Amino acid sequence: MARAKIALIGAGMIGGTLAHVAAREALGDVILFDIAEGMPQGKALDIAEATAVIGTDVSLKGANAYEDIAGADVCIVTAGVPRKPGMSRDDLIGINLKVMKAVGEGIKAHAPNAFVICITNPLDAMVWALQKFSGLPKEKVVGMAGVLDSARFAYFLAEKTGVSIQDIHAWTLGGHGDDMVPMVRHSTVGGLSLPDAVSAGMLSQGELDAIVERTRKGGGEIVALLKTGSAFYAPAESAIAMARSYLLDQKRVLPCAVWLSGEYGLSDLYVGVPALIGANGVEKVIEFSTNDDEKAMFKKSVESVQGLIQACKDIDASLA
Ligand code: A3D
Fold first, then answer.
1. For residue 218, what is the enclosing H or E element?
2. DSSP secondary structure, 271-300, as one string
3. Whole-prediction pTM value?
4. Strand partners, 173
5. Read out DSSP for 28-52?
6. Which residues form the Lactate/malate dehydrogenase N-terminal domain (predicted)?
7. 141-178 burial, b for 16+ CB within 10 Å, e for fewer?
C-alpha cells in the first residue's frame, strides 16, 4: 500500500515540529508548504537527512506551490501570522482570514479528499472559515485545540497528584480561549472523578481550582516564557494524535473543534467537543451530560466563538 501523504500548510515552528514527529513515526511522506522561500525546503532536507539516523522510510519535500500538496491524505494548517503587540483581535482575524482563503482554495483544488486539521488562531473561527473557503465536507475539517488544552489539564493533574499521566483522562470543552471549560466532573485521576479525587485527598479543592485556572491560561503561560512565539511541541503532538486516529482508523475520542448540527443544542458553528475520529473523519460527537454550572460556562465560551465568527462575516461578506 502506498504511504500516506501528509501536507503541512505553514512550515513555521509548529509545521517544522509536525514534520519531525511525522517522519520519526513514519506516519507518511511529508510536504512542508509555506510562502517563505527556502525555509520549508531547508527544514524538509534537514529532517530527511535525520531519517538516515532514525531509520524511517519516508520522504520529505519543501514546497511553495499548491500543486505539491496534490492528493494529500491529511493537511495540517498552521499558516498565518501570530498576534503582535498593538494588533487588535480584528486585525489578526482580518489577516489570517485572507490566509485561510488562500489555503482553503489550495486544498479544494489539489487535495479535496484530505482530512484537514486547522491549528491557526483564532482557532474556532479560522477552522469555520477554512471549511467554508475549501468547501470540503464538514466531517473532514476539524480544529486542533481541545487535545492540547486537555493535555495541559492532564499534565498539571499528574504533576500535582503524582499519578502517572497514563492514568489521567482530562477533558476540556468549548472554544480555545480563556473561557474554555475544563470538565472537572468528567476528568479522572486513576479512575476517580476529580471531585472524588479531592474527597480522597489526592489534591485539595484549592489546588484543583488553581489547575483549572492554569489550564485556561496555558497558552499565555508559554508565550510569557518564550517571549518570541507560542507553544509548538505540544500543539504539534496534539495534531499528530488527530492525524494518526484518522489515518489508522483508530476511532479515538479526542476533544476537537468540530462542526455541530444539533449536538449540545448548537448548530452551524465549530466548537470544541469530544469527537470520534476514524477513517471517515469525524464519525460521532460524544455528548457529555452537563449540569447548570457547566452549561453556563459552555454557553459563555460558545458566545465568544460566535463573536469571532461574526467578526469574520463582518470582514468578508462572502462568509455571511
Ligand atoms: P509561525 O512559526 O509563525 O509559523 C506560521 C507560518 O505560516 C510561517 O512560516 C509563515 O511564513 C507561514 N504563512 C504565513 N502566511 C502563509 C500563507 N498564506 N500560506 C502559507 N504559509 C503562510 O507560527 P507557529 O507555527 O508557532 O503557529 C502557527 C499558528 O498556530 C498560529 O496562528 C498560532 O497562533 C497557532 N497556534 C494555535 C494553537 C492552538 O491550540 C489552537 C496553539 C499554538 C499555536
1. helix 218-226
2. EEEEEEEETTEEEEE------HHHHHHHHH
3. 0.98
4. 181
5. -EEEEE-SSSSHHHHHHHHHHHHHH
6. 5-143
7. bbbbbbbbbbbbbbbbbbebbebeeeebbbbbbbbbbe
| Domain architecture of the chain: domains with CATH | 5-143 (3.40.50.720), 144-319 (3.90.110.10)
| Mutation pick for ligand 1 pocket among 121, 216, 221, 304 (CB with most ligand atoms within 8 Å) | 121
Q: Of the residues 124, 230, 256, which should be mutated to test ligand 1's pocket, given the most ligand atoms within 8 Å of the CB?
A: 230
How much distance in Å is there from the Cα of 286 to the middle of ligand 1?
Answer: 29
For the stretch 246-287, pLDDT in tens is 999 999 999 999 999 999 999 999 999 999 999 999 999 999
ipTM: 0.99
Q: State in Å: Cα 80 to ligand 1 middle.
A: 4
**Ligand 1 cavity residues, CB under 6 Å:** 9-15, 34-36, 78-80, 82, 99, 102-103, 119-121, 123, 144-145, 148, 176, 229-232, 235
Nearest residue (CA) to ligand 1, atom 20: 34
Amino acid at 110: H
C-alpha cell at 278: 476514524
What single-letter amino acid sits at 78? T
Do residues 92 and 123 touch, judged by C-beta distance below 8 A?
A: no
Taking the CB of residue 290, how many other CB atoms lie within 10 A of it?
A: 19
